[in-house]
């Protein structure tokens, strides 16, 4: 007996249609984003054109994006844009959406010997292998030799594995130089060292977020 005709025309609402699966992935990724995002940033969306462009690149091919470094003074919206970038990636419905967001001081606390149950090497591997990492407030403290080495190992691993990494910092990447060629103030390069500066120069999209402290503005507006 001849098999009857089969209906192979899927609509975007049918399982089997690429749009359907794409939507399913985006829904799961967004739920994951929301549960891992601190309350204050759950409304965050990326509005800075450079941030959205980076996030779209990361969503299309995470190996292409490189690092995103957001610099600026206190309260200019760096963390907001960083979580917004992660949301943009989630909305794109990537095949795998997994991220770790940590502040640098928290990270050093866990990496320190005795700072976590599973130990320094385990923590470092966890951070260095997650598909997306947000390192918030890097450079707020002067690094000891030990923390500088841990930061180097982590960022170098992301660099080697072409993993996307978002860094926010209050420091400029490079401070202006004085007449003697010395930096006029602290900068990321001085804090992290030239080995990392060289990798950032190659792999990073560095954006400066200017403006007043939004927290004071929010306060006076309420
Ligand atoms: N585009 C935005 N729309 C609405 N609220 C925003 C926006 N950007 C930032 N905010 C709010 O402004 C406040 C400061 O933003 P955020 O914490 O991102 O600043 P920051 O640059 O990371 O500050 P810091 O340098 O102190 O870490 C927060 O309450 C945040 O929710
Ligand atoms: Mg912040």
TrEMBL record:
InterPro entries: IstB_ATP-bd, P-loop_NTPase. One of its GO terms (biological process) is DNA replication. Keywords: ATP-binding, Nucleotide-binding. The keyword Nucleotide-binding applies. Residues 64-173 form the IstB-like ATP-binding domain. It comes from the Bacteria. Gene3D superfamilies: P-loop containing nucleotide triphosphate hydrolases. CDD domains: AAA. GO terms for molecular function: ATP binding. Pfam families: IstB_IS21. This is ATP-binding protein. It comes from Streptomyces eurocidicus (Streptoverticillium eurocidicus).
